[in-house]
Amino acid sequence: MQPSRPATIADVAAAAGVGVGTVSRVINGAANVRESTRATVQQAIDRLGYRPSHLAAALSRGTPRTVAIVVPHLTSPSVVPRLAGALAVLGEHGYDTVVCNVDTPAQRDHHLAALAGRHRAAGVIVVSLRLTAAQAELFRRSGLPLVTIDVVMPGVPHTVTDDVAGGRMAAGHLLSLGHRRIGFVASQRRLTGYRQAVAAAGASQDPDLVRRGPYGPSSAEALAAELLALPDPPTAIFAASDTQAIGVLAAADRSGVSVPGDLSVMGFDDIESAALLGLSTIRQRLWDSGAEGARRLCALLRGDRVVPLRQQLALEVVPRSSTAPARGAAPGAQLAATRPAIVN
Amino acid sequence: MQPSRPATIADVAAAAGVGVGTVSRVINGAANVRESTRATVQQAIDRLGYRPSHLAAALSRGTPRTVAIVVPHLTSPSVVPRLAGALAVLGEHGYDTVVCNVDTPAQRDHHLAALAGRHRAAGVIVVSLRLTAAQAELFRRSGLPLVTIDVVMPGVPHTVTDDVAGGRMAAGHLLSLGHRRIGFVASQRRLTGYRQAVAAAGASQDPDLVRRGPYGPSSAEALAAELLALPDPPTAIFAASDTQAIGVLAAADRSGVSVPGDLSVMGFDDIESAALLGLSTIRQRLWDSGAEGARRLCALLRGDRVVPLRQQLALEVVPRSSTAPARGAAPGAQLAATRPAIVN
DNA sequence: GTGAAAGCGCTAACAC
DNA sequence: GTGTTAGCGCTTTCAC
C-alpha cells in the first residue's frame, strides 16, 4: 500500500514517534543515535517506503553532491578513458557526475557559464580545454573548486604530462633505431622535446621535416604526404597524437610507402586502436589522469589544500610494429617488435 | 565589489524595489512582466552578480532538471556514440546529464537503487542493461520516467534495432558473395537472422559452424580459431559485433589465413575502428540511438505519451575490404570494395 | 502586472 | 540522545 503522496522525513518522524532530527541522523548514519531508536526509525522508513530527497538535502546543506566534468569531443578516443577514470573515483566518493560534452566554442562557453551558476555543482573538472581569462576569473570569484586535466591553468590544480619529455622519448626511440631524418607532424610542446633529442643526437634538423597543422587525422595525412613527397624524405615520422599517426599511416599506404619497412611511424597517447594497428607510441595513462584529477577535486572539496598545483604523470615508450631499425642502421640499433598485423 | 554573501532572489527584489515573485518571473522569462520592470530587475541582477540557485529552483518546482543515463562499460566503443547522442539532445532540452558507468553487476544495482531515490533525476535512460524484476518494479512504482536503449523492457519505451534482420543482412551479404559455409560467433538474436538467411539460400547449416561464447574479442578469437581448425572450415565468418570481429581477424592472422582472400569476415555495429580496419559490417546508427532515446525521454518528461513503445532503428550493410567473393563463386557474385589496408 | 505568503523536504544549531 | 526550530532560495497560488 503506497501512500499517494511520497513520504517525507516528517511522516517518518511521526510514524516512528520521534523528531525529524533523529530521522535525519538515522538516514545519514550519525553516531549518536540509540540502537533501539535507530531500529524503530528504520522500520518506519521501510514501512512508508520513504526515500530521502536529494534536492532538499543538498539545498539545506548548502551544496550539491554533484560534480561536473567538461570534456571536449567525447567521441575522440583519448578523452573516454579519462572520463571513465574520473567517473570511477567520483562515484566512489559519493558524487554524481554531470558530463558536459563540448564540440564547439559556443558549447564550451555555454556549459562553463551554466556551471558557474549557483548550486550547479560542488566542483568542476575541465579536461583539455583552455578557459578564457574572463571564465577563469568567473570561477575564481565564484569560489567553485576547479581542477584541470591535460591543460595548465595558473593557480588551478592540474594533472598533465610532460610533453617535452614525451617528444624527447619519441624522437629518442626513433634515433635509437638508427633514424637520422625524422619528420614531425603538429603540436608545439612535443615538438620542443623532439628538437632537443634530435639536436642532441646530431641528427637532421631540416626545418622541412617539421609540419604543423590542425588536429585531426585527415590534416595529418596531408602533412605526412608532403613529407613523403620530399626529395629526401624522412625515414621516420613522429606524430603528436595517435589520431594523427593514423593519418600518417594512411598517407604512407596511399603513397605506397611500406611501414615499417620504408618508414617508421610513432604516435602519442596509446589510444585503444593503437594496439589494434600495431602503432608504436608514447603511452599516456589516460584513465589514471582522469582518476587523479578527480581525486584532487575531491581533496579540494574536502577542504584540503592541493599542492603542488602541478601533478605530472609518467610517460612510457610502447614499441610496436610501426617502427623498425632504419635501413643500413648500425647493427647495434634496437630491434622493434614484430608487427602483429591484424589487418593485412 | 562582491557581496560576501551570495545574492539571493530576495536581495535582487529589494535592490530593484519589487517583490520576489516578479524577480522570479524575470528570471524564467515569464510573459506577464512590464518591460520597464524587467529592465529594472535585470539591472539589479547584473549589479549584484546574482545567480539563481539551481537547487532551490528544483526543490521548489518539485523536480530536478537533471537526467541520469546508465551505461555499461564506458570504455567499450559502441556505447560512447550512444552517450554522445543522448548528451547532445538532453543538453539542447536544458537538462544536465549525470552519467552512471557500470562495469559490474554490483555497480549496476548500486546506481539503479540510488537513481530510484527521490529527486535524484527527472528521468532515466538505461543503455544495454537488463533490469531485474525488482528494479523494474521499483521504477514503475516510483513513477520515474524511464526509457531504454538497445534493450527491451516490457512497458517501457525502448529504442532498439532489429537484430534478426541484421543477422539476415550480414548473412545475406556473404551469401551474395558466393559463400556457402559461413561461420557464426555469438549472440542469440542475430543468430536467428543468420539462420533464416542461410536456410533460405540453401547454404550449409552445419551446426559446427555456430559458436557461442561470452562477449569480448579474446573469446571471439578463440572461437574463430576453432572454426578455422575445422576439417572443412568456413569461407566466411559473421561475428555478432565488431569487437568480436576484431577477435576473428586476429585469429585469422594468427592461423595464417588471409582476409579476405581465404576468409571473409563480417562484423556488426560499425564502431570507429571498423573503418580503420577495413572491416565489413552492419552499421547501426549508434549516435542516433542515443539521441532518439533521449528524445523519447524528453517527451515523457513533457508529459506526452510515447507510442509505440518500441522504436526500431534501421540497419545498413557496409561492405569494406574484409569481405570478398568466395573462391570459385559464380561470376555474378557481388564485388566487395578493395581493402584500404591502412596497416600493412 | 505585481506583492505577499505558503510551501518544497531537508540539515544543523541549540536546548533539554 | 533526542526534540524543536530556523533557515536553505526558490516557485507558485492568490489577492490586489
Report on the structure:
The structure is a homodimer of 344-residue chains. Chain A has 13 helices and 12 strands. Chain A is α/β, with parallel strands linked by helices. In chain A, the strands form 3 sheets. In chain A, strands 2-1-3-4-5-11 form a 6-stranded parallel β-sheet, with helices on both faces. In chain A, strand 8, helix 11 and strand 9 form a beta-alpha-beta unit. Chain A is elongated. Residues 333-344 of chain A have low confidence and may be disordered. At the A-B interface, helix 4, helix 5, strand 2, helix 11 and helix 12 of A face helix 4, helix 5, strand 2, helix 11 and helix 12 of B. The first copy, chain A, binds a DNA duplex (16 and 16 nucleotides) through helix 1, helix 2 and helix 4.
| Largest interface (C-beta under 8 Å) | A-B, 55 and 54 residues
**Head-to-tail CA distance between termini of chain A:** 65 Å
Radius of gyration of chain A: 27 Å
- Estimate the global geometry of chain A from the Cα principal axes: elongated
| Topology pattern of chain A, helix = H, strand = E | HHHHEHEHEHEEHEHEHEHEHEHEE
Which structural class best describes the helix and strand composition of chain A?
alpha/beta
How many strand elements of chain A?
A: 12
Oligomeric nature of the chains: homodimer
Give the helix proportion of chain A (percent range).
40-55%
| Largest β-sheet summary of chain A | 6 strands, parallel
Low-confidence stretches of chain A: 333-344
Q: Please work out how many helical segments of chain A DSSP would assign.
A: 13
Binned strand content of chain A: 15-25%
